[in-house]
Amino acid sequence: MNNNFLQPFLYKDKAMFLAYDHGFEHGPKDLIGKSINPEFILDLAVKGEYTGIILQKGIAEKYYIGTKYQKNVPLILKLNGKTNIPQISDPYSSINCSVEYAKKLGAKAVGYTIYLGSKCEEKMFADFGKIQEQAHQLKMAAIAWIYPRGSAVENENSPEITAYAARIGLELGADMIKIKYCGSEETFRKAVQSAGKTKVILSGGPKVEDEEILKRIESVIKAGATGVAVGRNVFQHQDPLAMTEKIKKIIFD
Ligand code: FBP
């Protein structure tokens, strides 16, 4: 089995996803200005020619399925989510949508977050194991967000644990993984190598200066990454479309 399920999300074998699950993960405080309105984000995804949009179930039901957006940007339905309200050192993110229902909502891929190193990691491995098999049966891609996090994790962004996260993605059968930056092109290349035939995309992270995020994206592309899933660095920007164009140039040119 190869990566064919990812075809709807690739252009020139690269990917640029717009992530919009922050209202769930961090609360509306992240959704500054017009980004509180899901239609603003979906318009941006289409105008900016993103190769995928990441949404939770409720937004897909009310703003995506059966709309013009469905025809213009493929959906990755995020199946699990958690808030940042409880102070939990070993997180678990519960499933709120099935793979079958994601398919009914028009998704061509499903996403699931695994907190590698959490005391609950085995539950997330088991969840993702089932999700991956169901997704492939329904001819959908299975994408894993793999974020090292928990009381046993000393440094969530160390090159070693990032490469370990990437390897877990390969071993669990993810078609694609979304991982955080680990400091340099060289260390990210090790993570990409660890992921083997599983494609790797960068998770954008909190809003930083334009130059910093653009340099980071350039370095992961040079390291062999397939692309990025970006959220805050675009929709918290004063000109989200202009920022999108800059990112697009790096990934696709
Ligand atoms: P950003 O580009 O805004 O970082 O979005 C990527 C993402 O993975 C989102 O899908 C998610 O809401 C958020 O980051 C989670 O970040 P964290 O777990 O670090 O709070």
Give the N-terminus to C-terminus distance in angstroms. 29 Å
Mean pLDDT across all amino acids: 97
Number of strands: 10
Q: How much strand content do the residues show?
A: 15-25%
Gyration radius (Cα, Å) is 17 Å
Strand order of the largest sheet: 1-2-3-6-7-8-9-10
Structural class: alpha/beta
Give the overall form: globular
Ligand set: 1,6-di-O-phosphono-beta-D-fructofuranose
Helical segment count: 11
Main beta sheet strand tally, sense and closure: 8 strands, parallel, barrel
Helix content bin: 40-55%
Write down the oligomeric state: single chain
Low-confidence parts lasting 5 or more residues at pLDDT below 50? none
What is the N-to-C succession of helices and strands?
EHHEHHEEEHEHEHEHEHEHH
Could you walk me through the main structural features you see in this protein, from its secondary elements to its overall organization?
The chain has 253 residues and is an alpha/beta fold. The protein has helices at 22-25, 38-47, 57-64, 68-72, 99-104, 121-137, 159-171, 185-195, 210-222, 232-235, 240-252; strands spanning 15-19, 52-55, 75-78, 80-81, 94-95, 107-116, 141-148, 176-179, 199-203, 227-230. The strands form two sheets. An eight-stranded parallel β-barrel has the order 1-2-3-6-7-8-9-10, surrounded by seven helices. The chain has a two-stranded antiparallel sheet with strand order 4-5. The longest helix has 17 residues, at 121-137. The two termini are 29 Å apart. Bound molecules: 1,6-di-O-phosphono-beta-D-fructofuranose.
